[in-house]
Amino acid sequence: MSPELRGRIDRLNPVTGPLGVDAFGFDPGAIRYAAPPIEWLYRHYFRVVTKGIHQVPPGRVLLVGNHSGQLPFDGLMVGAAMMLEHEPPRVVRSMVERWVPRLPYVSMALARLGQVVGTPENCRRLLEQEEAILVFPEGVRGLNKPFAQRYKLARFGTGFMRLAAQTRTPVVPVGIVGAEEQAPALANLDRLAKPLGAPALPITPFFPWLGPAGLLPLPTRHRIHFGRPMEFEGQGDEEDEVIQSRIEEVREAIRGLVDAGLQEREGIFR
Questions:
Q1: Considering Cα of 162, then 165, then 169, then 174, what sign does the dihedral take?
Q2: What is the CA radius of gyration of the chain?
Q3: By three-state DSSP, how is residue 187 classified?
Q4: Structural contact between residues 188 and 144, judged by C-beta atoms closer than 8 angstroms
């Protein structure tokens, strides 16, 4: 581990209990083991270009991004950016899908690193602790979209917007470019996925043909653009039409950031 990375980890200030973990199982000590490979992915494999991260405010915040790539490397890179590039470095608590706890070993590892099942109650508790929360309102609709729909935002859920209003939390739009091409889905075998307890079974140029190795992402260059914080008034119990209009504001902001990232790049690996 480099002295710079060690120093940034030492500057993290996570909220934990008397046993050194929090109520969700987050163990800050686990970051010391996970950080070096994550930094390598960030700097050398995906070669992430991050812009606008200085706009993420201190205290409670909802980072809201577009989702893609079959496996959530996009979320991992947003979290890495906040640890490696933000001042001061911060731990990001990602809201993961409800089916994730059924995954052996993976669910425990994610919990140790601070990731939490995405229920409104869990998110509200973390926001009350002034945490930085990452949400992907597209959910699996975005994660497993076919390649033909790349960079087209799927429908957003409404929960994040109601929580933002209820907890007076600023929303920071995040546009991610590069994850769409890391594992392009040619088809999605939903009917075969359901008996396995999975939300989808994507077919890519490499999976399932190469077995588990086919899950490895291509080293596409990732670009992450953080937008200006957006604040919304209200109590969170407004009519659906009001909530949807606010969500559309966030969608448009994310779409603009994604378009900026697409215009900047010279190719998917550059």
A1: positive
A2: 18
A3: strand
A4: yes
8-state DSSP, 178 = S
Instruction: Read off the amino acid at residue 15.
Output: V
Per-residue pLDDT of 69-112, as tens digits, reads: 778 899 999 999 999 999 999 999 998 877 666 666 777 888 88
Length of the chain: 270
pTM of the full structure: 0.91
pLDDT at position 126:
94
**DSSP assignment, residue 239?**
-
- The answer for residues whose C-beta is within 8 angstroms of residue 160's C-beta and 6 or more apart is 62, 64, 123, 135, 137, 171
pLDDT at 81: 98
For residue 70, the Cα-to-chain-centroid distance in whole angstroms is 13
* Alpha carbons 73 and 87: distance in angstroms, whole number: 22
Whether the bond between 208 and the residue before it is cis, its omega within 30 degrees of 0, is yes
Q: Which two tokens stand for residue 134?
A: 């990452």
Strand partners, 175: 225
